[in-house]
């Protein structure tokens, strides 16, 4: 969760947290999306805001951004409120491509079981500060939340998993395991029939695209395993076979020092060197869930997970969350 009490950045070279104090910080939130532009601006959209007084969480309505490079733009958050905008949402996804922030899906309410899930696509023009709803052709995915989306260099956005609208007499969510691609240049959806070591039903997992065009999935809720996934998978999007591959080296349960992949709601980025950095998340312990503040990296070029030792934890408040 984006916490107003803590604003920290992680120095990848020194493997240390550094506390920063920009002005006009937005309210704490969860389930939001974030993208970084080539110029070094980080844009955050949507998410849920905890209301301790009413007990009913609210949805964020604004776009906020901050410069990540040192200087005047990094000293204060800025807020943007376009007149025309998408429905407020959380647990959606966002990618950056060609000057736009592209969002897909999500939920319109913060508290289950009244969620209404979405499968719309909107693009925010970062220079003009305007939203546009994108009409897409092809095989459109079902409305969903908790999915992942990453962008390839060719402008194709890859969407995996999530959970869909509640249906049936048992009222359970419909968990998803399909891979969809949206060509942002052609505005056309397609469903990818995959083979190999299939990830199965996943949601609230982490995902990145490496420089070689491989789509990576890490952790998440594995509905078919009735728990959290401790696995990592990749699919080479440049090949025609559309085959998933498991990486057993990333799931060394015999090693007590192995990084904890078995958690949900982690966030991941990838360096140009091929290091996949994974931070935070939630893990089940006993009958309760607990926030996990660890940070580790996985070498996508030579599969070997490595935990990163930090000098300062970014956590604040209680580690316990509701089941």
UniProtKB/TrEMBL annotation:
<keyword id="KW-0880">Kelch repeat</keyword>
<feature type="compositionally biased region" description="Low complexity">
    <location>
        <begin position="303"/>
        <end position="323"/>
    </location>
</feature>
<protein>
    <submittedName>
        <fullName>Uncharacterized protein</fullName>
    </submittedName>
</protein>
<dbReference type="InterPro" id="IPR015915">
    <property type="entry name" value="Kelch-typ_b-propeller"/>
</dbReference>
<dbReference type="Pfam" id="PF24681">
    <property type="entry name" value="Kelch_KLHDC2_KLHL20_DRC7"/>
</dbReference>
<feature type="region of interest" description="Disordered">
    <location>
        <begin position="302"/>
        <end position="323"/>
    </location>
</feature>
<keyword id="KW-0677">Repeat</keyword>
């Amino acid at each position: 969760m984006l916490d107003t009490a803590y604003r920290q950045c992680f120095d990848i070279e020194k493997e240390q947290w550094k506390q920063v104090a920009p002005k006009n910080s937005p309210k704490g939130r969860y389930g939001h999306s974030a993208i970084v532009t080539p110029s070094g601006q980080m844009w955050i959209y949507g998410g849920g805001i905890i209301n301790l007084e009413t007990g009913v969480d609210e949805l964020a309505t604004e776009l906020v951004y901050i410069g990540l490079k040192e200087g005047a733009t990094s000293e204060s958050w800025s807020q943007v409120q376009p007149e025309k905008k998408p429905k407020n949402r959380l647990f959606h996804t966002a990618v950056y491509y060609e000057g736009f922030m592209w969002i897909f899906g999500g939920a319109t309410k913060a508290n289950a079981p009244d969620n209404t899930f979405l499968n719309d696509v909107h693009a925010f023009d970062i220079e003009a500060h305007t939203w546009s709803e994108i009409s897409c052709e092809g095989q459109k995915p079902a409305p969903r939340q908790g999915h992942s989306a990453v962008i390839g260099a060719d402008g194709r956005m890859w969407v995996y998993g999530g959970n869909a609208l509640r249906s049936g007499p048992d009222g359970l969510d419909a968990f998803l395991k399909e891979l969809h691609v949206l060509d942002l240049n052609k505005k056309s959806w397609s469903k990818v029939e995959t083979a190999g070591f299939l990830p199965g039903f996943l949601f609230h997992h982490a995902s990145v695209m490496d420089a070689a065009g491989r789509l990576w999935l890490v952790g998440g809720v594995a509905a078919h395993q009735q728990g959290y996934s401790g696995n990592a998978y990749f699919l080479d999007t440049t090949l025609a076979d559309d085959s998933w591959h498991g990486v057993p080296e990333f799931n060394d349960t015999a090693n007590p020092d192995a990084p904890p992949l078995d958690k949900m709601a982690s966030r991941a980025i990838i360096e140009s060197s091929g290091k996949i950095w994974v931070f935070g998340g939630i893990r089940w312990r006993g009958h309760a869930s607990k926030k996990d503040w660890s940070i580790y990296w996985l070498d996508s070029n030579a599969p070997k997970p490595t935990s990163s030792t930090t000098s300062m934890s970014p956590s604040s408040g209680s580690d316990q969350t509701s089941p």
